[in-house]
Amino acid sequence: MSLQAQTMDSTWVKGQKKLEDGYYKADKITFSNVLVTDYQDSSNFYFVDEKLEIPLNSLEDATITENNNGNTFILLKFKSGSHKRWEELTSNQVGKELVLIVNNQLVQASKINMTVFNGMSAINRNDLSQEQMQGLMKMIKERIK
Q1: How would residue 16 be classed by pLDDT, with cut points 50, 70 and 90?
Q2: Pairing with 86, which of 54, 72, 77, 78 sits 20 to 30 Å away (CA)?
Q3: Per-domain boundaries in the chain
Q4: Across the chain, how many H-helices and E-strands are there?
Q5: 49: DSSP letter
């Protein structure tokens, strides 16, 4: 059996897929899943299971925050009714990847290290400027209203 290389655009294989905004399970090896690339770095790719795990409208708010080390990130707060689902999903994905798709773009890929109990998530993107972080936060806020 041979694998045939496919031409891809900056987001989807041949631009044929449209996924809803939200969180999806992903990995680097399941070729039968949809191939997505990072919207800032097309060399960074994931194969995404097309089943939406948590829709973006499960979020209540998105804010730019700075930690004690001076690193800026977007803090995502889930609505109270979604806390349990986020806890279950992160529990089942420990050691595995989750990706956040917004506006048909992969904006965050994270390896889950532990169950998240507090109904929060974060987008840590050291490769984004302050202006790009503001734009991403604005895009998320517009889509969770």
Answers
A1: low
A2: 72
A3: 22-144
A4: 2, 9
A5: -
Q: Choose among 129, 63, 117, 38: nearest CA to 85.
A: 117
pTM for the full predicted model: 0.82
Query: Which two three-digit tokens encode residue 135?
Result: 């734009």
If you ran DSSP here, which 8-state letter would residue 80 be given? Answer: G
pLDDT given for residue 142 in this prediction: 93
Per-residue pLDDT averaged across 33-51, rounded?
Answer: 81
Q: Are residues 57 and 35 in contact, defined by beta-carbon separation less than 8 angstroms?
A: no
How many beta carbons lie within 10 A of that of residue 59, not counting itself? 25
Could you please state the CATH topology (level 3) that the domain comprising 22-144 is classified under. Answer: Gyrase A; domain 2 (3.30.1360)
Q: Where are the alpha helices (DSSP H) in the chain?
A: 83-92, 130-144
Q: What's the chain's average pLDDT? A: 84
Least Cα distance to 89 among 80, 98, 81 occurs for 98
